Amino acid sequence: MAQIAVRVVRKAQEALDIASFELARPDGAPLPAFSAGSHIDVQVPGGLTRQYSLCNDAGENHRYRIAVLRDAASRGGSAGMHDSLHEGDMLLISEPRNHFPLVHAKRSLLFAGGIGVTPLLCMAQRLAQLDADFALHYSTRSAERTAFRAEIAASRFADRVQFHHDDGPPSQKLNLPRVLGQPDAGTHLYVCGPSGFIDFVLKTAKEHGWPPEQIHLEYFGAAPQDTTGDRAFEVKLAGSGKTYAVAADQTVVQALQAQGIEILTSCEQGVCGTCITRVLDGECDHRDMYFTDEEKAKHDQFTPCCSRAKSAVLVLDL
Predict the structure, then answer these.
(1) Which residues lie in coiled coils (predicted)?
(2) pLDDT tens across 270-308, in order?
């Protein structure tokens, strides 16, 4: 994928532990167009690559804006963005990609958990421009951790947004059964945020009979995995016919990198789909948050950055 050199033209503190970064070409030339729900890969200071959703108006071509939560368990990505990146610095990014697009619907319900507001903010901007029927429910731990609160309050769609804070009075907390109501064929749900928040919304929606095809989601991070039972296995590359061992404490990506075989990765958590690899034979132990249950059951593709094998060997289309 083509890389784009951009400059950080503005860095701002949007909430406690959340900073936004406005990116533009140094010469002011237009950036590639994007649609609501899109993200970009960012080469973070320190050599890591991380994905961040675009949260500015999709009609803009002079800038991209992203927002980053400082993660206490950061493996270097969010810490690098917060501590090492400043206004005037240069970055390499990818062109926008969209795995979380808006679909045409009579009504849209947007559910944001924490930093998961970023793609949904862009969706709200787009839906407001279309004069579409929608509502945004934005849940955070507290008001001081609520990014873009003033911006949303001043927007044309402010009356369609409800804020819900964990430390607030019961009357303002998200009453999901009431908000969801009975399934409506013309309504689509969009959910983004921590895995616990997404799972809560998904579980409640399914209990109320909402069909999977009307629920769209994007995880920002994978849930912790229990790796105590992990065992070694092998991967065979169909192209060369060679077989390589994957140790119990290794990922497939790490095992192949040690042999000089590179697989393009980004999130390293099975969230983004960058490393998806076709599986020709064998049974996968899926640990990603990207594929649906139906897609996982086919065992014809997996995410080698985190997923493993249930069979002794996986044959990969590499």
Answers:
(1) none
(2) 877 889 999 999 999 999 878 878 889 999 999 999 999
